[in-house]
Amino acid sequence: MSISNAWAQTEARLTWLDNRFRVDPEIEQITFVVTREQSSQSVVLVAPDGRKYYANRHSKAMSWYSDKGMDIISINHPMAGPWQALGKVSVNNGIRFISNVQLQADALPAQLYQTEVLKFSAKLTQNQQPLLLRDYLDRVRLKVIFYPLTSVLPNQANDSAPIEVGQFADDGQEYDEVAGDGIFTVALNVDVEPGKYRVEIASTNGVFKRVVEQTVLVYPAPITTSFVQSHQPLTPHSVNIEAKADQTLAGSLAAYLVVKQPQQKPTIIQQSSRLQQSHLTISWPNDAQIGKAWWRGWAYVTDSLTQRELVFRLSQQNYTQVAAVAVDFSASLAQQQAKRQLIVLHEQQQQRLFWVVVTNIVIISVLVVLLIWRRKRVVQSDLIVPK
Residue 16 belongs to a domain with what CATH number? Predict the structure, then answer.
């Protein structure tokens, strides 16, 4: 049986008794999915020239993924001629062929922001059409990896180690819209330091070898967040979010918080900024309950340069509510009264001292006057001429 180029570029199902198939010279790449009987060993692949290949020992031109009851083998530039798969191949499912598999991914914005979260999709295609072979797709593991190149910020260390920032899924959960539609989606969390990166989207489990690369710049987040915890029952807790006016549109800031206080169910608080404002203050009452508490959420703002809607995850922040410090007003009042009494007593002492000094001065002055007067009398008496 011959597999023509046109046939190999579409999924085909073959169930031969001897598990033989022929590859034509025009085929540049082929992948076949072999369904085996449960608990059986991986098949042995025999090339037209008689060479045998195994799951753990095969050519560099092959990628071989072995799972329970299944082998997925991709061959680049396969040798033309009859191939054979030796093993307990399932009679019901047999061998299915796919070829011309390509990985396509969305184009990332050239300018990303630190801690930004964005929806990012990729898909496998066959002849420019979505590949929908579930046995194949269920075993695909796509990851997004950032490779640091240079730093945008001066004097910042450059770590060349790759950083995994997300894994794709086609399960209809979270950001993925439809399960099993061949479109893989990830909530890309750009939790990396500002700088220049080479972004690689690739399979990590050997099902196929396709890589998509892009280059992006990551800038510091255009928002800042601060939390002010209250320690008094009448003062609320608050989260302050500030957007940079030179990078975001005024009035576009919004936030969504989930707050969990002790002995209460989580509550949701949503708020948006007013026109021409670039900040938000979100508060909730301190219920005076003692225990562990937390808050987390999302912030939304519009990039003023590209008009792109930005989403930032506000990581969970834990805090502990403790008993408010009791103020003894009666003791405070007594202290104030005692202080006033001391002040009055001090003033009285100062007044007594003043009058003592004045009295002494008066007495001394009188004595001095009397002494002078007496001396004058003596002098006058000495100047009298006798008759």
Answer: 2.60.120
